[in-house]
Amino acid sequence: MKLVLVGTLHHDFSRLVRAVIGVFNDDGEKVLLQYGFTDISQIHIPSHFEIRQFIESRELSSYMQKVRVIVISGGEATALETMRGARYTPIIFPRQKRFNEHVDDQQSRLARYFSEAGLALIAHTADDIGRAIPCIHPLRPSDIAQLPKRNVPFIVKKLSAWLQGQL
Asked: Using alpha carbons only, what angle is made at residue 28 by residues 22 and 30, rounded to the nearest 5 degrees?
């Protein structure tokens, strides 16, 4: 099974939904798609996709332990929760301001930070997702140990330092 987490922001993120539909052909593997507040009513969802608006935390943790391919939005809470719970590097598909998916491009900056730390891969298009899949690798306990217990102070401190060229 493959897992796709669009997240819970109220901004549309149909670009991610369309991208994974374009990449995840019916190869016998189910795709679980959490679509949040994205309007999917005008998107043809293939039969091998199971769609859920939201997934409970406990159930999500269970899925993360079972799947090898996880594509997520670039929100810090989703990224950190995924890296803590998953066995493999997630592919972060950040929301972008130019597509009206977010108010700024902080998800792209955060995705770059996690990618440079070896904790995630980045994709901006369906083709990028396809190219990232062969690069997925196991997350080691030492990788996970560097993640904070609390998201916001870590993100602000690390991202500020990274943006200022101190990392």
From this structure: 70
